[in-house]
Amino acid sequence: MFDHLDDQNPPEFGEQFHDRVVTAAQRRQRRSRWSVSSVVLMPLLILGGLALFLRDQAGELDRIEVGGLTPAETNPTATPQDVEPATTAGTVVATSAVDDVPPISTPLNILIVGVDQRPPDSVVTGSRADTIALVRIDPERGRVGVLSLPRDLHVEHDGTSGRLNTFTADQDLVEVVSSVLEVDINHYVEVDFDGFESLIDLVGGVSVPFDTAVRDRHTGFTAESGCNQLSGSEALAYVRSRTLESIDVTTGQWAQDPRADLGRIVRQQDLMRRVYRDVLSAGYSTIDELRLLTDVVDDITVDIGLDLHGLRALFNAAEVIGPDQVQFYDLHAGLSADATADGSAVLVADRATMQTAVDGLLGTGEHGGHDENAEQTPGAVDPRRVSC
Questions:
Q1: What's the CA gap between 156 and 176, in Å, rounded?
Q2: Average pLDDT for residues 11-32, to the nearest whole number?
Q3: Which residues face 157 on adjacent strands?
Q4: Residue 197's closest CA among 255, 143, 237?
Q5: CA torsion 46→48→51→56, rounded to 10°?
Q6: Could you give the angle at which helices 286-296 and 308-321 cross, rounded to 10 degrees?
Q7: Can you state the angle between helices 14-58 and 308-321, rounded to 10 degrees?
């Protein structure tokens, strides 16, 4: 019926045209297969890139020899085949792929120190411990304990005496803390202030409520009454505050927290509790977890027995335990003010109070933590009662 529409002189395409058509079809088929394969392989490509990035970042993690540590039954580190020999700078390069790291299975005691790195042009060089805490991660009991130590705590070691923060990682700090508390310490982690700021900013800040407006003219910290979302720099100013003032709403006068460094410890523990709650409640994926670590790796120093895999194992153990099983301890009840022979102000702890705190940390005591009726930081809301 449609024969009259047919071309009476159809073109002859020949074998060359046929070959071009077949080749084009095969090319389209290959492109289609590659498109599907790309979708399937993309997670592997991303993880492969992260593995290389992690390897590079692991090389930037400062690992140092620290005296006074007691080897743990099992160290939370990469397997020997995953680690290249240490360089002269004391760092290693992890080579294993990015995957889930099993949490630790036995209790570990980690001395965590926040340090104030002196600027290069400072008359005083080096760094000094600004915050000192012994952390026990106990997966067997399903709990985490944090014992904060005043930096002005009076200690004696090898015939010398002085403030606790006059000792450093390479100058017997671990030995001193271990001896004073009579507790074995398995690992050492040091974080400078840049790392603290970065961590707070990475998790989106931290919310802290206050009953009244507060300020510290030395650190520059200010906050209004109510819920305040603190950035990394604001959180640092808050936890460093030793002269925090709160306003009396009836008189309009500012009153300084009389506890100085002890009040600062309460604020530090308050913030630690909030950050710990926020981080562990977020349910971070492996990639998120790696980002947290790799973004602050430049600001962390650990003992030679730890690497990024070990830090992840500690993080995972704390995540499994959960934020509701964290208990904080201090020596406040048994501290008294004193002075050294050269006139330096120090804090002296009585042995009974110290033992009670240590028993609580190790899980062998009845309590030893915060007194629920203890006086709170002026202006600050009890974190057990209020969230924001």
A1: 8
A2: 51
A3: 160
A4: 237
A5: -90
A6: 130
A7: 80
Retrieve residue 317's tokens.
């153990």
Give the type of residue at 233: S
Q: Which of 170, 162, 257 is nearest to 219 (CA)?
A: 257
**Top-confidence residue, 366 or 205:** 205
Torsion of CA 295, 299, 301, 306, to 10 degrees: -10
Beta-bridged to residue 212, according to DSSP, are none
Helices then strands (H, E): number in the chain? 8, 17
Kindly list the distances between the CA atom of residue 53 and the CA atoms of 32, 50, 111, 294, in Å, as whole numbers in the listed order: 31, 5, 28, 9
Q: Could you tell me the residue ranges of all domains in the chain?
A: 59-362
The one-letter code for the residue type at 118 is: R
pTM over 0.85: no
Instruction: Please tell me the distance from the alpha carbon of residue 350 to that of residue 136, in angstroms, as a whole number.
Output: 22
Residue 267 CA: distances (Å) to CA of 99, 199, 264, 385? 36, 17, 5, 15
Residue with tokens 């290249």: 84
> Which of 163, 153, 374 is CA-nearest to residue 269?
374
Cβ atoms of 187 and 305 within 8 Å: the answer is: yes
Helix, strand, coil content of the chain in percent (nearest 5): 40, 25, 40
pLDDT in tens, 283-331: 666 666 666 666 677 788 899 998 888 888 888 888 888 888 889 999 9
pLDDT score recorded for residue 104:
86
Could you count the other beta carbons within 10 Å of the beta carbon of residue 90?
A: 15
Edge to edge, what strands does the sheet with 214-216 contain?
221-223, 214-216, 245-247, 254-256
Query: Helices 232-240 and 193-202, interaxial angle, to 10°?
Result: 130
What single-letter amino acid sits at 264? Answer: R
> Which residues on adjacent β-strands are paired with residue 111?
134, 188
Q: How far apart are CA 342 and CA 340, in angstroms?
A: 5
Give residues with Cβ within 8 angstroms of 277, minimum separation 6: 323
Q: Which element (helix H / strand E) includes 261?
A: helix 261-281
* H or E segment to which residue 191 belongs: strand 187-192
Cα gap 141→362, rounded to integer Å: 10
**Which superfamily does 59-362 belong to?**
LCP protein (3.40.630.190)
Amino acid sitting at position 303 = D
Contact 189, 306 (CB under 8 A): yes
DSSP-derived 3-state class of residue 3? helix
